[in-house]
Amino acid sequence: MAVPPAKNTSLPSMSADQPSLFQSADLLPEGKSVAEPQGNGMRVARVMLEETALELDYLIPEELSAKIQPGTRVHVPLQNRRGTAVVLQLLDESPYGNRLKPISSTVGSRPMFTPSLLKLAQWTAQYYLSPVHQVLRAMLPEAVRSKPETFLSDSHLTLVQPPTADALQKLHKNAPIQARIIDILQSRGGEATLSQLRQQLPSATQAVHALVKKNILSRSEVRVERDPFQDEEFLPSAPLVMTEEQQAAFEKILQCLDSTEPSKPMLLHGVTGSGKTEIYLQTIAHVLTQGKTALVLVPEISLTPQTIERFKSRFSERKERIAVLHSHLSQGERHDEWFKIHENRTDIVIGARSAIFAPLQNLGLIVVDEEHEPSYKQDENPRYNARDLAIVRAMLEKCSCLLGSATPSLETWQNARSGKYTHLHLTRRTDHKNMPLVRVVDMRLEKRRQKDGVAILSEKLRVAIQKRLDQGEQTILFLNRRGFNTAVSCMECGSSVKCPECDIPFTYHKAENRLICHVCGMRSMPPKRCPECKSASLIYGGFGTERAEATLKITFPTARIARVDTDVMQRKNQLRDTLRDFRSQKTDILIGTQMIAKGLDFPNVTLVGVLNADLSLNLPDYRAAERTFQLLTQVAGRAGRGDIMGEVLIQTFAPHSPAIQYARRADYDGYAEQELEHRQHFGPYPPHTHAVLIGSRSKQASLAEFTLQNLATKLKKSLPEGIILHDPCPSPLAKAHGQYRFQMLLLADKIRPLLAHLKNVLSSMTFPEEVIVTWDIDPVSLM
Ligand code: ADP
Ligand code: ZN
Ligand code: ZN
After folding, report:
1. Is the CB of 155 inside a 6 Å radius of any atom of ligand 1?
2. CA angle 294, 295, 299 (to 5 degrees)
3. What is the pLDDT of residue 599?
4. What are the residues whose beta carbons fall under 8 Å from the beta carbon of 180, sequence distance 6 or more?
5. DSSP 3-state assignment of 209?
6. What's the whole-model pTM score?
7. What is the pLDDT of residues 581-632, one digit of tens each?
8. What is the best residue among 235, 250, 278, 310 to mutate for testing ligand 1's pocket, by most ligand atoms within 8 Å of CB?
9. Could you tell me the distance, in angstroms and rounded to a whole number, from the CA of residue 116 to the centre of ligand 3?
C-alpha cells in the first residue's frame, strides 16, 4: 500500500517560494529523544533511506568529506544491516549529537541528483502526495540504481615497438596470429581495440597477451558505450528557411529565451504539419550557442526512428552529444545513456515521460511536444504528469519551457488564453498546403445498406481507397482496437464471454485462435458452448485490426497491405521496417492502431480513413470528447503531406457529435469553447476545477467498497469549502486482474486546500491489508 508522505502541510504552488526542503522532525523513529544541538563543528549529512520515507542523520567521515554533497547516494549502517540512502542536506550539527554513526561509503563517483532535481523530487512528492523516497526511486532508471557505473570495457592496443622486417618474417612462421595482429595494427596506423581485432581475427586474445608481454604492444582498458544508434548513418540537414508565421513565433521564443526575466511557459499552438518541429530544432540550436543544454520530451509512441533521425541529422556534428531515453532501450543502453548525461557529455536529451528527470545540467530549454498526450501521465506511484513537471522544473532551473501541440489540452489552452502562458500560433501548413478535406460517413445508413450487418468499410471509403490504388497513391486506415472479433456473445442468454479475472469481454484473435483479455492478457480456448447457459449458439461480433485487414484483403485482392499493432509488431525493428516499406511505397495500405496515429510524415499518403471514430467517444469519462477530437485531428494530419490534396473519411454512428463535427472543420477554438462550456455545465470539471480520483481495489468487493465509503465519510467531515466529493461507485472497469475496483472523484476550485485535507485524512487512517487505496492528482483518465 502507498504510504502518505510525512505531515507537511505547506504544499507549494508553482509560483510560491520553494518550501524549506526538509522538515524531518516528525519522520524520526519513535523512542529517540531529541538531544540538544551540539554545535561543535561536526559534519553531518541528513539522508533519506531509499526503501522507506525515513530521514536520518549520519556523520561524514573525513575521507569521504569531499565526495558527499546533497544528491550523493550513500551506504549507511542501520540497526543490523546496511541501507542505501540519498544525502538531502549537509549540517553543522544534529539533534542526535554524539550518538551518530558514520556513513559507510558512497555510491558512484559524483552526486546522482542535482540540487534542482532534489527540489523537483520534493515538489513532486508534495503535489502528488507520494513519499519522497518513492519519487527519488522513480527518478533513476533501474539499471542506474541497481548497477551504477557498470560499463562495458574494451582494451585499447597500441603498437609501441614494431618488430623489424626480419623479425616479422620469423614471427609469421612461428606465431602467425601474432604476426597477423601486427599487420592489422600497422594497416590501422598502429592502434586498434581488442574487439576490432577480434572481428578480423576471432582468436586474437591469446596472441595479444603474448605481444603485450614482449612489450611490442601496450594495452589500456577503455570504457565502451552501448550506443543504440551505433550502426546508423545520419545525413546532415541544414535549418530550413522559415515561413512568415514560423519566423514570427520563433522570434517571440528567442525574446523569451534571451530575456533576463524568468520566462513564462510558452504554448506553440500549430496545426499538424505547420512546422513546429522545425521551430524546436532552431530554438535548440540557439540554446546550444548560449552554451546551454536542451531537454525534449516526446510521447513514447512518437519516439520513432524518424523523429530521432531529425534531431541527429540536424545536429550531426555533435550527434554523440545527443542522448535518447525510452523504454525500448536495453537496460545496458539506458544505463550508458543516463551516465552520458550525468557526466555532462550531452547537450540534448530526447526522451519519453521519465526523461523529465534526466540529470542534465545548465538547462536552457525544455520542449514538450504533443503536450496534450495522456501518456505523459505516469500510471503508478508517483502519478506525475511529465508535462506539468516540465513547467515546474523549468521554473526551478530558471530556464524556458516550450509546449507544442495541434490540439492543446484544455488546461494548457486556458492558461494560454488567460495570459499565464505565452500563446504562439501557427495556422497554416508549411508551403501553404491545404488542410485535408474531411468528410464524415454516417454508418447508421451504411449498416442498413450492408446485408451481413457488419459495416467495416463503407461504400464511400471503399471507393476512395480504390481510387488511391488506381492512382498509385497510399492510404492509412486507423482503428484503435486489436484482434479479430471484439466480443463473443450468446444468442440464447445474451451474455458475452468475459475474462474470469476482469470485467470485460474477451477479444477473439484469429491467427492464434484464442480469446485474449486486453486488460490482463489471459488467454483461453474459444468455447464451444456459452459458459453461462451452455447453449451452442455463440456469435462472434465486432471488429478489430486483424479482421479489418482480412476484409481489406478480400475487397482489394491485389493491394499490398500491412498491419501495425502490438500483435504483429513483436520483433525488434519490425515497426521500423514496416514503416520504411510504406515510405518507399512497397505497400499501398497501412492499417493500424494508435501506433500509426502520430507524427508519421508520408508525402504519398492522400487518404486517411478512421474506421470507427466512436471507440473513444463512448468512454465513460468527461475527457471522451477531448480524446476523440485530438485523435481525429492527429490522424487527419497524416493525409496530404505531399503535393496532392489529402482526404480524410471518418466513419461514425454519431455523425453530429461536436467532437466529430469540429474535427471535421479543423476548428480547434470552436471545439474548445464548446467543450469548456460543457465541462462547466456538467461538473464543473477540469480545467474549471482540479480533480483527484481516489480508487480502492481488492479481491473482496465488499471490502474495497467499504474502505472507500469509510474514507469518504472521513473526508466529508470538515471538508473545506469549494470541494465537491462525488459518492464512491464501481469504476468503469469494475474488475481487473481479479480485483474489484471502486472509485470516487473529488473536484476543487483550488488544489492546495484539497491536497492538505486529503493528506491529513489519509495519514490519519490505516487501510485493511487486503485493500489497495490509490490517489491520482489531476487524473487523465477515469477508467
Ligand atoms: P509539425 O511538427 O508541426 O507537425 P513539422 O516540423 O514536422 O511540423 O513540419 C512538417 C513538414 O514541413 C516537414 O516535412 C518539414 O520538414 C517541413 N517544413 C517545416 N518547416 C518548413 C519550412 N520553413 N520550409 C519548408 N518545409 C518546412
Ligand atoms: Zn448463454
Ligand atoms: Zn483479464
Report:
1. no
2. 150
3. 60
4. 201
5. helix
6. 0.86
7. 999 999 999 999 987 876 677 888 999 999 999 988 888 888 999 999 998 9
8. 278
9. 42
